[in-house]
Specification:
Blueprint lengths: L1 H6 L6 H19 L4 H23 L32 H29 L4 H25 L3 H20 L1
Helix pairs in contact: 2-3, 4-5, 4-6
């Protein structure tokens, strides 16, 4: 919270120094608990994130939908404005298909792309492995965002399936 306060422009450079000091103390505390240096740094970086998730969840405003007071959301500030339909509108099966496209199929296409880059790129094995380690999560995120935002689910499914088959085929032969 001190780092956030310092980064949002509030006065007091002491907040940033104290926050980094507390994080460094967390690394040493995890190290003294028996974890190796690599795990101590990871745990010290993840602990504030978990605390932030708890704070965000506690402050979340979750209310049940009331069917009597359905009003469409508007994005304009003037009076003559058309309401936009919610993005999640549609039957349940579209949500399930979108989930499969954004999760497993996007992951398969991303891994295929990373494997093909690792095995077929003209660089050393170590460089290819590092490149694949960067390509897979970035491609998965990009494919997942595309799968959740595109309205034409058939096109997304065909392109991701073709990409997965082509990339694994190219890596194999």
């Amino acid at each position: 919270m001190l780092l956030r306060a310092a980064w949002t422009g509030r006065t007091g450079g002491w907040r940033m120094r104290v926050a980094w000091f507390v994080l460094a103390c967390g690394v040493f505390a995890w190290r003294l608990s028996g974890a190796g240096w690599d795990k101590a740094v990871a745990f010290a970086a993840l602990a504030p994130t978990l605390i932030a998730f708890v704070v965000v969840a506690a402050r979340a405003d979750i209310r049940p939908k009331d069917s009597k007071t359905k009003r469409p959301k508007t994005t304009c500030k003037t009076a003559p404005c058309k309401a936009e339909p919610p993005l999640s509108a549609g039957p349940l099966w579209r949500g399930l298909v979108r989930t499969v496209l954004a999760g497993p199929l996007s992951g398969l296409a991303a891994v295929g792309l990373a494997v093909a880059a690792d095995l077929r790129a003209p660089w050393s094995e170590a460089d290819g492995l590092v490149a694949a380690g960067f390509i897979a999560p970035l491609a998965w995120a990009g494919f997942g965002v595309w799968a959740t935002t595109d309205e034409r689910l058939g096109r997304v499914g065909v392109v991701l399936s073709a990409m997965a088959l082509a990339s694994f085929g190219w890596a194999r032969f």
